[in-house]
Specification:
alpha/beta, ATP-binding, MutS, DNA mismatch repair protein, Chain A, domain 3, 6-stranded mixed β-sheet, DNA mismatch repair protein MutS, damaged DNA binding, Nucleotidyltransferase, domain 5, mismatched DNA binding, binds magnesium ion, about 850 residues, 6 domains, binds adenosine-5'-diphosphate
């Protein structure tokens, strides 16, 4: 049986230690996979499944990928959320006794990839770890291994806050202890949709002691160690570019609840998950990949500290004013490569000479950056320029050692400059001299033999040779030449002195290639020592890049610097930063927002499609832009600092999520209500849609009342329940506003203009008309509406509505009180009755409705 060969035993043993990964088992020029790994890999990678030991009793499923093209296959698996264990032969097969020793040399996981082909240069690649403590607190650590960044956050406010925090971060993988309660693990995997990994052991690694020096809380040290242990376990090497953990003080940042980042489309759109159409897309005028990554980070964690925000605004202002200097700044920054990732690769050990030259060129640009910064008339910009300390030591190492245009390979020589190493110079001298000697020999032989076509050549198998064509053979003297190789029209010879020189040259070349490789490794080690300095410079360059991007986009789109005030938020002619870009003409209609001391809640009414949701999101985006340090889309803005933003999108608009039951909506409203403070901003967009009219309206009203009376958070509440506008009479800090629409020749015209007061009617039917519903249907709806509007008692309105709706389905109207339903009708009613709406997704509800309607139609 094929299973029991020594090699298969070795395989099974290694596989048993890496059950949750595809084991890439090195066999010669291939990585092979066996058993389930093979079956699954064949499916995922669309490669052929074969059998090992075919013809025998129990052949093993097997598939493989060539070593030289493995990177793409690995990438494919990692992108699907799998892990790949790379198992190499760790001894030379020629000297091995028995089966060649094999070991897993690296475990590649979605959160720990270092290979540049698997990293998107404008995105961070985060892995997180989560630890829980007996006092009910949690610690989250974030790490981007490609750049060595570590961030750590302590959460004492319970599990829900953990989910909200993690949900908003772009993590690929999360490392947890297996002691985390099952239901919490379950929520992580369901809500976050990332690879779950386990790390129970948290041995404190002495090597990484210094990374924890700034952590005084034992919980943080433990949590950080969990992540470091996992990294060590996957990478199987020590990494010198890991930075001490930066503590994220969550309460020093504007917190976005779980759905805000998605609903507000900060970094990607809801539907297509594309950057195009998101706020990031509008704002990303960075020119370096590092800057782009930092901008994304800032968007995910806006600031709360007025001083820090205003410092950013000052700098943006400076960049904005000096547009000529900004242009030159952008130009120079374009030639600064990804210092952070280069530093990461130095530590990881997969950087080549060409990359180091890139590093050199990038660092050489810094004095120029610094000089340009000094030309701006702004003290914080000058301060930034002073932080760009010229990394002389690193440059002198690189400058003296590496040639300008080295090859990609570091094992074939031609990377080190002449004069860098004496021994290398001697070898090179020897080889050059030897080659010179051979060139001279060729001339000498030509002369002596009088054969013009005589030449000296070289090939790998035979070494150096003298080649003479057959026609000239008779000119050769006897005895001097030894025949080495016969070709169809020539003979190749060797002489003792040529042989001797050949040995000298080859030896010198071999030695110099070896030496160059070793020298390169040493240079890399030397650069390693300077990694923190490179990282520090990278950080400053990224900041400069993001702030110049803010200035650039603010100028291009006519944004204004906001002032931060204490009480009255007032935006004059504000715009939605993304929609105004998407609309090709200048047709976006600007609107004011006023939330003064006497206004906490704005209740927004207006027809469908008039711009309610846009208006609400526009405010949230403006707030976020202001608090990350960018200027804002309006003519003038007084902003107040918000500590948190909550967004709740009613069921109708949340179809995309596919899981928006009324229950979810209520849970999320509850989250806003329990966590919001008077300094928060709450957006409730058509809440209560997911249930029947009365339920929904009642809940909507009580939610508004509750926020108004107990929380005092600034709140925008859009609703299609006109009845709620009456609240203005009872709630003194609630104001009605509406989006204006006008009727013109029986059609509705949306003006997208926000006005004070409540909307006069809802125009729903006009919208239906716009949507091209059949004319008889529209007419019928018009007459129902008339009846409804002539009825002033609300409950009668509802009765009428219900009966009239029924008449759409059933030919004959059934007289009140006489319920003579047919058998079929009864079954439909029963089905309707049995629906458990709380547990249905909108899609399921649609399907069920469709099915019922089909019954009625036939
Ligand atoms: P509602 O929430 O009232 O149904 P939306 O906010 O979804 O309406 O807006 C519907 C459409 O109207 C948007 O897709 C947008 O194209 C357009 N719109 C909204 N507000 C404006 C505005 N201020 N200026 C121009 N077009 C707007
Ligand atoms: Mg809407």
């Amino acid at each position: 049986m094929a299973k029991s060969t020594p090699m298969m035993e070795q395989y099974l043993k290694i596989k048993a230690e890496h059950k949750d990964a595809f084991l890439f088992f090195r066999l010669g020029d291939f990585y092979e996979m066996f058993f389930d790994d093979a079956i699954n890999a064949a499916r995922e990678l669309e490669i052929t499944l074969t059998k090992r030991g075919a013809g025998q009793d129990d052949p093993i499923p097997m598939c493989g990928v060539p070593y030289h093209s493995a990177a793409n296959y690995i990438k494919n698996l990692i992108e699907k959320g799998y892990k790949v264990a790379i198992c190499e032969q760790v001894e030379d097969p020629k000297v091995a006794k028995g089966v060649v020793r094999r070991e897993v040399v690296q475990l590649i996981t979605p959160g720990t990839v270092m290979e540049s082909n698997m990293l998107n240069e404008r995105d961070n690649n985060y892995i997180a770890s989560l630890s829980h403590f007996s006092d009910g607190s949690y610690v989250i650590v974030y790490n981007d291994l490609s750049i060595g960044e570590n961030n750590i956050a302590l959460i004492s406010s319970g599990w829900e806050a953990v989910i909200h925090e993690l949900y908003n971060q772009p993590i690929k993988e999360i490392v947890i202890p297996s002691s985390l309660p099952d239901e919490l693990q379950d929520q992580l995997s369901k809500k976050l949709n990332v690879t779950l990994s386990y790390q129970d052991e948290i041995n404190f690694n002495a090597e990484y002691r210094s990374l924890c020096d700034n952590l005084t809380d034992e919980r943080l040290v433990k949590a950080f160690s969990r992540l470091l242990n996992y990294i060590q376990y996957t990478q199987k090497r020590s990494l010198d570019h890991l930075q001490p953990a930066k503590i994220i003080e969550l309460e020093h940042h504007l917190a976005l609840d779980m759905y805000s980042k998605r609903n507000l489309e900060l970094t990607e759109t809801i539907m297509k998950k594309s950057k195009h159409g998101s706020l990031l897309w509008v704002l990303d005028k960075t020119v370096t990949a590092m800057g782009s990554r930092m901008l994304k980070k800032w968007l995910e964690r806006p600031l709360l500290n007025k001083y820090e925000i205003e410092k950013r605004h000052d700098i943006v202002d400076g960049f904005y004013q000096g547009f000529m200097e900004r242009d030159s700044l952008r130009d120079v920054l374009k030639s600064v490569y990804d210092l952070e990732r280069l530093a990461g690769r130095v530590a990881f050990g997969n950087i080549n000479a060409r990359d180091l030259i890139q590093l050199k060129h990038s660092l050489e640009k810094l004095p120029e950056v610094s000089t340009i910064l000094k030309q701006f008339n702004q003290k914080n910009i000058i301060e930034l320029s002073n932080k760009l300390v010229f990394p002389e030591e690193i440059l002198s190492i690189l400058d003296t050692s590496l040639i300008e245009d080295p090859p990609i390979s570091i094992k074939e020589g031609s990377i080190i400059k002449d004069g860098y190493n004496e021994k290398l110079d001697t070898y090179r001298e020897a080889s050059r001299n030897g080659k010179q000697w051979i060139a001279e020999l060729e001339q000498k032989e030509k002369k002596e033999t009088n054969i013009k076509s005589l030449k000296i050549g070289y090939n790998r198998v035979f070494g150096y040779y003298i080649e003479v064509t057959k026609a000239n053979l008779h000119l050769l003297p006897e005895g001097k030449y030894e025949r080495k190789q016969t070709l169809s029209n020539a003979e190749r010879y060797i002489t003792p002195e040529l042989k001797e020189k050949e040995e000298l040259i080859l030896e010198a070349e071999e030695k110099s290639v070896d030496l160059e490789y070793n020298l390169f490794l040493k240079i890399r080690e030397q650069i390693k020592e300077h990694i923190p300095k490179i990282q520090h410079l990278a950080d400053i360059v990224s900041k400069i890049d993001v702030l110049q991007a803010f200035a650039t986009v603010s100028e291009a789109n006519n944004y204004k610097r906001p002032r931060f005030v204490d009480e009255t938020l007032s935006i004059k002619n504000g715009r939605h930063p993304v929609i105004e870009q998407v609309m090709k003409d200048d047709s976006f209609v600007p609107n004011n927002v006023l939330l003064d001391q006497n206004t906490d809640v704005l209740l927004i009414t207006g027809p469908n499609m008039s711009g309610k949701s846009t208006y609400m999101r526009q405010l949230a985006l403006t707030v976020i832009m202001g608090q990350i340090g960018c200027f804002v889309p309006c003519e003038d803005a007084d902003l107040i600092l918000f500590d948190q933003i909550f967004t709740r999108i009613g069921a109708a608009d949340d179809l995309v999520a596919g899981q928006s039951t009324f229950m979810v909506e209520m849970l999320e409203a509850n989250h806003a209500i329990t966590n919001a403070t008077e300094n928060s901003l709450i957006l409730l967009d058509e809440i209560g849609r997911g249930t029947s009219t009365y339920d929904g309206m009642a809940l909507a009203q009580s939610i508004v009342e509750y926020i108004h009376n107990n929380i005092h958070a600034k709140t925008l509440f859009s609703t299609h329940y006109h009845e709620l506008t009456a609240l203005e009479n009872t709630l003194d800090k609630l104001k009605n506003i509406h989006v204006r629409a006008e009727e013109y020749e029986g059609n509705v015209v949306f003006l997208h203009q926000i006005k004070e007061g409540a909307a006069d009617q809802s125009y729903g039917i006009h919208v239906a008309k716009l949507a091209n519903l059949p004319e008889p249907l529209i007419d019928r709806a018009g007459s129902i509406l008339n009846q409804l509007e002539n009825n002033d008692e609300m409950h009668e309105v509802a009765n009428l509505a219900a009966n009239d709706q029924l008449s759409f389905f059933i030919e004959e109207k059934i007289p009140k009180g006489k319920k003579q339903y047919s058998k079929e009708d009864k079954s439909i009613i029963e089905d309707l009755n049995n629906l458990n709406l709380f547990e249905m997704t909108p899609m399921e509800a649609m399907n069920e409705l469709y099915r019922l309607q089909k019954h009625v139609k036939k």
